[in-house]
Structure prediction request, 143 residues.
Amino acid sequence: MIVPFEPWHLVAITPQPHQIGSIRTEQHAGNIASVGAFTCLHNGQPVAIGGIVPAEKYGLVFDSGIGYAWMMISAGITHLWPEIFKATRRELHRALANYHRIEASTTFPEGERMLAMLGMRCEGHLKKFNHRGEDSSLWAITR
Prediction:
């Protein structure tokens, strides 16, 4: 079931191995809630959370119109992928009404495959970009 994000979702989700160590504090959850996101619940527990953060929100850029898409996913939920994918695609395309560019980064092939299926294009590679110092690929969609 897809529902609006609530701060407790971030603390309650068990991230997949690629995302262990991601920031999941109450402050971060509050920041996410202030810009909005969505959660996929299964048996009352969050198994996927995603959203788009405006780049200017935290001084990341000095212009508006750019969003950073993100998603945290639990392992072992392949049976829920159709629902998660549809919700993600719907939110991404809805957000394009407010942004001229939406970016995302990933460090693993499954993430790259999902971003490509969402219509994003790989724009390059980022050295030591994530929380573990791993290289990432940068993806974007524009309108």
Notes: The chain has a mean pLDDT of 90. Helices lie at 7-12, 26-35, 81-95, 109-117.
